[in-house]
Amino acid sequence: MSEPLDIRSCDRQELIAYMKSLGQPAFRARQLFRQAQKLSAPDFSSMSDLPLSLRQRLQEEARLTTPAVVTERISESGDTAKLLLEFADGERVEMALMLYRREQARDRATCCVSCQSGCAMGCRFCATGMFDRFRNLTAGEIVSQVQLADALARRLGFDGVSNLVYMGMGEPLANFENVRKSILLLNDEDGLNVGARRITVSTCGLVPRIYEMADWGLQVGLAVSLHAADNEKRRALMPGASRWTAEELIEACDHYRARTGRRVTCEYALIKGVNDSREDANKLAALLTGKGILVNIILANALPERGIEASGEETCAAFCRVLEKAGVEVQIRESRGRDIEAACGQLRKRQEEQAGPKAD
Ligand code: SF4
């Protein structure tokens, strides 16, 4: 038997075709799209603008991805939330929400979504890379995370989700089509209508996919995880990205910027004794000078099982000075929500450790 159609994963054209197959007029597709995308209807019975007979038919042969909230944590400061979500097959992902009150500009509510449950890239410093099971999320499963974040932001006094980053669990460019489709759904004016310029996709550096992404025709931001300019060091830290050199990655970033007009940011997690020396900073400066790339320095999240420790603040300041002196723009990204294990993969990992091994 074929899988029921997930309406939350469908774009307008797919819904038009589906409604046509049921003998329904095309305008029903738009109603259904709005219900699934903008109003985040939890089930078909609540779609009161659709005729009862259609709702019953949908109930029988389609579905609406709606994950269960396993855990909701809000930081003491109230500016960061982390949700652990479970989909129908038992796969769990994390979603984070960061809230910013701003005096001179519109408040910001940034949702950090997961695109895979787990990740095959195996970055040494990342808790998500330690799970032994994973799968790609569908477009609807990605959208449903943002819908929950939007409702939570409103509950916390914000005007819904304003920004979106694909920086949660998983490598977005390894789930290329579903990520692309989710962006189109979230960007749709009949959906949550998040502007493309407010969406950032973060990759560990799958170079050919960056060239393909440049052809999307969307002004989506790109962030690349570099974490070492030295290729040998980078290979050890990020085995999943080791097929391409740092130079090839920066060339792809150049292309992305030229094609989309969007500046690229480069993420660099400072790990004590691993990638935080003056020599590391000099190599990074040599790689990025004149490239117009903004470097985001993050203090690595501790991962004792892998011997990963954050660099000290003085080391961090000295590292940044080297980059600044070379004319490379750099900022230290504030780390939020340590009290709620907001870093990627931490919450799920902790809960799985407490629950013991999971049966397949
Ligand atoms: S850092 Fe990103 S790409 Fe690397 S293992 Fe973690 S989730 Fe995957």
SSE topology:
Layout: E1 5-6, H1 12-21, H2 27-37, H3 52-61, E2 62-63, E3 68-74, E4 80-86, E5 92-100, E6 108-112, E7 116-117, E8 135-136, H4 139-155, E9 163-166, H5 176-187, E10 199-203, H6 207-214, E11 221-225, H7 231-237, H8 246-260, E12 264-270, H9 278-288, E13 294-299, H10 313-325, E14 330-332, H11 346-355
Parallel strand pairs: 1-2, 6-9, 9-10, 10-11, 11-12, 12-13, 13-14
Antiparallel strand pairs: 3-4, 4-5, 5-6, 7-8
Helix pairs in contact: 1-2, 4-5, 6-8, 9-10
Residues 119, 121-123, 126, 128-129, 169-171, 204, 344 line the site of iron/sulfur cluster.
Task: Write a brief caption for the model.
The chain is an alpha/beta fold and 360 residues long. The protein folds into 2 domains: 59 residues, Orthogonal Bundle (DNA polymerase, domain 1), CATH 1.10.150.530; 288 residues, TIM Barrel, CATH 3.20.20. The chain has 11 helices and 14 strands.
